[in-house]
Structures are given as C-alpha cells and as structure tokens.
Design goal:
By secondary structure, the chain is an alpha/beta fold. It has one domain: Phosphotransferase system, mannose-type IIA component (Rossmann fold), CATH 3.40.50. It has 5 helices and 4 strands. Helix 4 (about 95-105) packs antiparallel against helix 5 (about 110-120). The radius of gyration is 16 Å and the shape is globular.
Length: about 140
C-alpha cells in the first residue's frame, strides 16, 4: 500500500503543480487528490469535501496533506486534519517537493513526509551557487 496524498491549496495552485508533476514523472503510483479553495469558498463545504477525499485516500498507510501558504485559509483548514491521526501535514508545497513524493510512493508516512520536506528545501537555492562564504560565482 502507498500513502495517499491530498493537495489543499488556493485556487489552481494544486492542479497546476499536479499537472506539472504528472508531466515530469507520469502518474503517481498511489492515490492522489486535490482540493482547490477559491476566495469565496464556504469553509464548511470545503471541510466536507476534504473529509470525503481523506476517507477515499487512506488505504491504511495514512495521508500526506500538502498545502501552499502557512497561515492562509487552505493551510488553516489542512492543519485541522492532523488530529485524525495517521496524517502528516506539510506547508509550503512546491514542485520539487511534489516530485519527491511521486518518486517514493511506497515509503511509509514518516519517510515520505521527510522526503517531501527535503525535496522542497533541496529544490530552492540561489543561482549561481555560492563558491565561497560571502560570494557567488561570476
């Protein structure tokens, strides 16, 4: 079994990331869904949609929730689901993170969570890379 993945993000963020990850990696080997939250969404309707998707996604290995912006409505809703148990919530989703998740569908929830965070961090850096302390390559 693989970890289920749920993207909970501002409108079009999750669908765009998912489309890009699929074009690079192909289909995710497990179950993956997304909830797109518009500026005029009713929080209770969103919560019901998430609950339904969470039930479908959790096949016994847990669910990894990826959300975009800490402190925003999508992330505030996403963090409420941590209390269910067997759920990890990672905020600050980006394409390198999602690709890392796609590459490790069979890892357990803790490992795929750690790999998602590492993927996000490893995928963000200044260019050109630093050569020495205080300077950049020219």
């Amino acid at each position: 079994m693989s970890v289920g993945v749920l993207l909970i993000n501002h409108q079009h963020v999750g669908s765009g990331l998912l489309a890009a990850a699929r074009s690079i990696c192909g289909e995710y080997a497990g179950s993956i869904e997304e909830v797109s939250i518009s500026h005029d969404a009713k929080p209770l309707d969103v919560i019901v949609e998430i609950e339904n998707k969470m039930q479908a996604l959790d096949q016994g290995s847990g669910v990894l929730i990826l959300s975009d912006l800490y402190g925003s409505t999508p992330s505030n809703i996403a963090t409420q689901f941590y209390q269910l148990g067997n759920v990890s919530v990672v905020l600050g989703v980006n394409l390198p993170m999602l690709i890392r998740v796609f590459n490790y569908p069979k890892d357990d929830l803790d490992k795929v969570t750690a790999k998602a965070i590492a993927g996000a961090k490893d995928g963000v850096f200044a260019y050109p890379p630093k050569i020495k302390e205080g300077g950049y390559a020219k």
